[in-house]
């Protein structure tokens, strides 16, 4: 707690602000069209006992933020496929960007359990919102911190932490998704600058991003990270339309047509595919926690709905089939919580391995998808409407199960770990 007093104070201040806001319930009640968020988190194995006061403070701060800034609006944003750009600054204010990075760069200096809790709370609100935050923290700020020069850290991290700038991460290409090593985006050394050519696809945040961390090959075929800024000539970010998933998150391409990138924008610290993979480990860890948030929201909604909905003269929660579903949901959520908590401790100790992170990402997302599908049925016809968060979570999770390594690719990572035999190619 002492190592990040400023951050702690920041959360305390936010908490007080939240309490004041709660006091003005008359005002919030006046917003009749806005949804009330009565979410209550399940904690069947009393995992709260494993959390520090700081963890709990972080959680209550982010939970209140989600209830206030996301829940009332998310259904509308998702229905309209609208990315609420103003949320970026608000995420910065609440400390959602790069929470584990040092306070000297305007970040949180928190541990990985706190990071997981933040991702869980945000994704409880919406996976698209969590994607915005985890891309910024794990895929843009993390590589700049880990592989960047001191000048790059000082230039970019404070602005990204505060939400003044939005970032994106360009690895995937139209012809290279699960196999990023085949990428064709490349740069040439022109003496006083690099010349970047190629295209990236499926890039979260790209249409609104101020900076992009882009992975490209040099003339020797070695992968390096480059920081590309909006406004550089020949750099465009067309938006991808028509998604049925992560509709409140903006996704697009990155197109590089002879972009002159200053030499000081190359990340000097690490090259090769291992560099972007390290970033993905951090982001996948966040997803493992985040997906549990989506599952908890579906479970919470299903629990309340089945107790209120009367059929055959009784609440549908009184039928054994409903109780079986609820019991199995809670069991799976609890198992995933325990797995993630242990992984978080390993992350804190710097001992977590890529296959361990793959197992957690894979487990959490599959669990959340199954729970969202069950919850959808338990809500009957209402389950397909925006009156409840279920269908939105379910559709979002179809992206989460694919991005940052598909479900099957993570299985192959585990298969390789178990047998020592890579089955990728
Ligand atoms: P493919 O690689 O073509 O895979 C198609 C299918 O083949 C999958 O089922 C896969 O599991 C399977 N498959 C592939 N290879 C094998 C194999 N060896 N053995 C068995 N099965 C195999 N990327 C970024 O760089 N930055 C981002 O910010 C980002 N955001 C995204 C946001 C969204 C909404 C989405 C949908 C994607 C995003 N991605 C991003 C891209 C994402 O990481 C890729 O979609 C993912 O890695 C899969 O690549 P692909 O879509 O090309 O599928």
N-to-C CA distance: 47 Å
Q: What's the alpha carbon Rg, rounded to whole Å?
A: 21 Å
Q: Whole-number average pLDDT?
A: 93
Biggest sheet architecture:
4 strands, antiparallel
Number of helices: 13
Structural category is: alpha+beta
Describe the global form: globular
Helix content: 40-55%
Small molecules in complex: flavin-adenine dinucleotide
Strand order of the largest sheet: 2-3-7-6
Quick tags:
4-stranded antiparallel sheet; globular; 3-stranded mixed sheet; binds flavin-adenine dinucleotide; 13 helices; alpha+beta; disordered N terminus; 425 residues
Description:
Helices cover 52% and strands 12% of the residues. The protein is α+β, with helices and mostly antiparallel strands and 425 residues long. The chain has a four-stranded antiparallel beta sheet with strand order 2-3-7-6, covered by helices on one side. A three-stranded mixed beta sheet has the order 1-4-5, covered by helices on one side. It is globular, with a radius of gyration of 21 Å. Residues 1-6 and 18-33 have low confidence and may be disordered. The protein binds flavin-adenine dinucleotide (FAD). The site of flavin-adenine dinucleotide (FAD) has 23 residues, from strand 1, strand 3 and helix 13.
